């Protein structure tokens, strides 16, 4: 997401939710999940032929939520605010029960039935952060952990007109079970911020780490 405007159009992020590593959110029990109870995921056994023609099996996980007419599960949203003090990326803090930690993430979400990845990105950004945006471009389909799951996503780059009243007085539309704190980090400081936040007890989403590492590589090799 790219936004170009005067400094006056960038009010501080007003987030009602403050999520720290010592948050009261925590896992209180872990137990096996029966397939009949599973709403979001399922485990499957793949029977396949390897390159030598030998029959083998593979255990993997799949989402139950992928739209029937879509080959994509969800979207991640690249949100860069171009400010006079330097470009900043829009990030989120969100508690994730599988890790039992607050995670530093890009805005993201699942695609609804009948939506394109781009439409989902516009909707999810508005719901999670309050920002109104327009799509610039989308990435190829990316796979998160292909040795474990077929879950995938597109990274959608969007632009934000910071002169719009909606983007100065943000009104997220979070669901009852969503607890998200929105904040910005300067791109030039993203790697150091990831290190600092991890030391404070946060978990770092791989997409954030990859973006930060890519910036550091570009600096090192002057790309």
TrEMBL record:
Is Hydrolase included in the keywords of this UniProt record? yes
* Alphabetized UniProt keyword annotations: Hydrolase
Q: What is its EC number?
A: 3.6.1.13
A GO term, aspect molecular function:
ADP-ribose diphosphatase activity
Annotated ranges, domain Nudix hydrolase = 70-210
Q: Which CDD domains match?
A: NUDIX_ADPRase_Nudt5 (cd18888)
Top-level EC class as recorded in UniProt: hydrolase
Ranges annotated as spanning the membrane:
none
Q: What's this protein's family per the entry?
A: Belongs to the Nudix hydrolase family.
Report what the protein is called: ADP-ribose diphosphatase
């Amino acid at each position: 997401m790219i936004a170009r405007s005067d400094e006056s159009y960038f009010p501080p992020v007003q987030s009602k939710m403050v999520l720290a590593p010592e948050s009261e959110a925590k896992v209180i029990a872990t137990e096996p999940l029966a397939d009949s109870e599973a709403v979001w995921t399922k485990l499957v056994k793949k029977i396949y032929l390897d390159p030598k023609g030998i029959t083998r099996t593979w255990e993997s996980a799949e989402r139950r939520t992928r739209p029937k007419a879509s080959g994509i599960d969800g979207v991640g949203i690249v949100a860069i605010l171009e400010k006079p003090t330097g470009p900043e990326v829009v990030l989120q803090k969100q508690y994730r029960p599988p890790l039992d930690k607050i995670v530093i993430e890009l805005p993201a979400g699942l695609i609804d039935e009948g939506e394109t990845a781009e439409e989902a990105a516009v909707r999810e950004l508005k719901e999670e952060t309050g920002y109104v945006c327009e799509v610039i471009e989308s990435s190829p389909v990316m796979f998160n952990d292909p040795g474990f799951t077929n879950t995938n996503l597109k990274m959608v780059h969007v632009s934000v007109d910071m002169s719009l009243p909606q983007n100065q007085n943000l009104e997220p539309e979070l669901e009852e079970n969503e607890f998200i704190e929105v904040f910005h980090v300067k791109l030039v400081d993203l790697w150091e911020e990831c290190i600092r936040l991890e030391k404070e007890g946060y978990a770092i989403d791989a997409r954030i780490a990859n973006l930060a590492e890519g910036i550091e590589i570009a600096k090192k090799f002057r790309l």
